[in-house]
Automatic annotation (TrEMBL):
It is a multi-pass membrane protein. The chain crosses the membrane at residues 25-51, 63-88, 100-122, 134-157, 197-222, 234-252, 272-292. One of its GO terms (biological process) is cellular response to lipid. Its main location: membrane. Residues 43-292 form the G-protein coupled receptors family 1 profile domain. Keywords: Cell membrane, G-protein coupled receptor, Membrane, Olfaction, Receptor, Sensory transduction, Transducer, Transmembrane, Transmembrane helix. InterPro entries: GPCR_Rhodpsn, GPCR_Rhodpsn_7TM, Olfact_rcpt, OR51/52/56-like. The gene is LOC115643727. This is Olfactory receptor. Pfam families: 7tm_4. Coiled coil: none annotated. The lineage of its organism: Eukaryota, Metazoa, Chordata, Craniata, Vertebrata. It comes from Gopherus evgoodei (Goodes thornscrub tortoise). GO terms for cellular component: plasma membrane.
Amino acid sequence: MSAVNNTKYNSAMFFLTGFPGEEDVHLWISIPFCLMYVISIVGNSVILFIIKTDPTLHEPMYIFLSMLATTDLALSISTMPTTLGIFFFNSREISFDACFAQLFFIHLLECIESSVLLLMAFDRFIAIRNPLRYASILTLIAKMGLVCVLRGVTLILPIPFLLQRFQYCRANVLSHCCCLNQEVMKMACSDIRVNSIYGLSVAIFTVWVDSLLIFLSYVMILKTVLSITSHAECLKALSICVSHLCAVLLFYTPMIGLSVMHRFWEGSSPLLQIPLGYIYVLVPPVMNPIVYSMKSKHLRARIIRVFIK
């Protein structure tokens, strides 16, 4: 009887969710989503092109920004097929293997982005605390980037393999537009304690540790800035941190909120989970190029020059 039940429910597919009950207007809803993806892909691509082609921007701050733009671009590409598939073609099915591959890339890119944001906080701290040594960071950037990627691959690679061990015999309906580990593992009809502990450990070692170190970096930055006697220099020092601080808030706020909901607040309303899920995967890649373009006069001038030509 158990084998029959498993055959009945295990369809080798997960089913993604758009906005439940709003299927009739999904095509209209797709318009702002398409716009967000266009802004994300074009915005991050333009930033990468300008930083690569303009030698005056080959300094640590902009190289770290190019790393962030690359990660955001890849994250948008990872989520775009399933998100637009839901709203354009009402295609909600995704195979197990495709789902595991998608969640691997999503979590890998988020781990890398968290690392890059931490490096950018360190970059801002050195630029303010010890500007004479700031140029020396340039020689370490390639090694820093490699460490970010290796850390992400090492931590995230076991997750899809751990998920493949399970038998999935539930309805397999996911509450988001893409596959996320903390939700997929709950679809299993097996003991998921190992996955849960490992996933929580990864979250603590990446998101929580990185965000804590970023906070400590800003405490040191603030302490350094307050020691500056000139009010104008104090404001100038703080102004170079504004865009990075915005990027940090855009990235960590929805990520931590969604993680807390899935792990510690299982009874939370789908009306909270679904919009937060879209904010989690869509908003940072869209807003980061806008924020940095607005706050960096040098970068903004180059972007305007490219489009005027």
